[in-house]
């Protein structure tokens, strides 16, 4: 183990790596409940998505540890699962089998981009302000979904959306949000997971106290603890219909969003922990990206939204994790949850709403890196930022962010900033607009 992971060379030990792996797991484990909760709204069976989620976390993080040798966990991505459910299946009325096929093909595309190093040219072509804006826009999108799931924000024919009146559901959500926020602010390890558990526990007595029925406040329905894994979504993807022109924008959005997520995570954690190679690049970046591509491809086969590197892995890095052993330890901790679908299915949607809101807080941080004084950069970034939640579509945020960037740079005389690679991307986004339903 010492020789394989080079523990002494990286200034760490087995005990430190184990503690770091546990810390990363606690910070990331909320996805075990949140991902099935989100995807089940697209018609996918909760137990089957839970099985797929756990297996994506297990195999992908294990691969990250043994193959890429990085202390970074891989799991179904927040934002990607929201896009899958609300934009693709519900918004575009695409069957979830076709959406799973799009996930699979996006993984294949990501894999090819990584193998042939094309990702380097793509990343260089993507303006940094747009990267920051897309990340923040996805954060706002997830937050809106959290507020909507809690019925904190509701539709209104006069004002489009509005706040809801106080009832048992809102009391449960507000208490859960505040308690979870306090734990997050105090840097409690596993704060979001503990927040989900706390909100679940209080949802039942508050619902009964207010005399509210299940259709208003989701109450706990306890159907046992253990069950065999549900593999009913395995190989349910539609590989043929997911290759039609109408689904091209979906694959495009999955590829680019996954690439933004993974690269920003790898770069951010590598810089913070000094996990850099001799060229100053993130250590084993190519193998890490190949692992990320595997996670997305496997997710499509297993029945989940795309997998991606998790920024919450920074918790384990802060605890001293420096090698792939951290990811291996965390991956093993995910595996037992594949047998706990009856217990975890008792978690109501309202219990995951505070987690969705607070994930938005973490994802909006990059907006401070945008130069808002430079309007030819600020306007495209702003459009990408607000159109994602306003249109309920990550695709539209990306499309109009790129196109407006190109038009403004051309018109203000900064044509050197419009690279050939960017023009190729623009052609793809125009194609996405043309073939979109």
UniProtKB/TrEMBL annotation:
<dbReference type="Pfam" id="PF00860">
    <property type="entry name" value="Xan_ur_permease"/>
</dbReference>
<feature type="transmembrane region" description="Helical">
    <location>
        <begin position="73"/>
        <end position="92"/>
    </location>
</feature>
<keyword id="KW-0472">Membrane</keyword>
<dbReference type="InterPro" id="IPR006043">
    <property type="entry name" value="NCS2"/>
</dbReference>
<keyword id="KW-0813">Transport</keyword>
<protein>
    <submittedName>
        <fullName>AGZA family xanthine/uracil permease-like MFS transporter</fullName>
    </submittedName>
</protein>
<dbReference type="GO" id="GO:0005886">
    <property type="term" value="C:plasma membrane"/>
</dbReference>
<feature type="transmembrane region" description="Helical">
    <location>
        <begin position="192"/>
        <end position="211"/>
    </location>
</feature>
<keyword id="KW-1133">Transmembrane helix</keyword>
<dbReference type="InterPro" id="IPR026033">
    <property type="entry name" value="Azg-like_bact_archaea"/>
</dbReference>
<feature type="transmembrane region" description="Helical">
    <location>
        <begin position="325"/>
        <end position="344"/>
    </location>
</feature>
<dbReference type="InterPro" id="IPR045018">
    <property type="entry name" value="Azg-like"/>
</dbReference>
<feature type="transmembrane region" description="Helical">
    <location>
        <begin position="350"/>
        <end position="368"/>
    </location>
</feature>
<feature type="transmembrane region" description="Helical">
    <location>
        <begin position="130"/>
        <end position="148"/>
    </location>
</feature>
<dbReference type="GO" id="GO:0005345">
    <property type="term" value="F:purine nucleobase transmembrane transporter activity"/>
</dbReference>
<feature type="transmembrane region" description="Helical">
    <location>
        <begin position="418"/>
        <end position="435"/>
    </location>
</feature>
<keyword id="KW-1003">Cell membrane</keyword>
<keyword id="KW-0812">Transmembrane</keyword>
<feature type="transmembrane region" description="Helical">
    <location>
        <begin position="12"/>
        <end position="32"/>
    </location>
</feature>
<feature type="transmembrane region" description="Helical">
    <location>
        <begin position="98"/>
        <end position="118"/>
    </location>
</feature>
<feature type="transmembrane region" description="Helical">
    <location>
        <begin position="380"/>
        <end position="403"/>
    </location>
</feature>
<comment type="similarity">
    <text>Belongs to the nucleobase:cation symporter-2 (NCS2) (TC 2.A.40) family. Azg-like subfamily.</text>
</comment>
<feature type="transmembrane region" description="Helical">
    <location>
        <begin position="231"/>
        <end position="256"/>
    </location>
</feature>
<feature type="transmembrane region" description="Helical">
    <location>
        <begin position="44"/>
        <end position="66"/>
    </location>
</feature>
<feature type="transmembrane region" description="Helical">
    <location>
        <begin position="168"/>
        <end position="185"/>
    </location>
</feature>
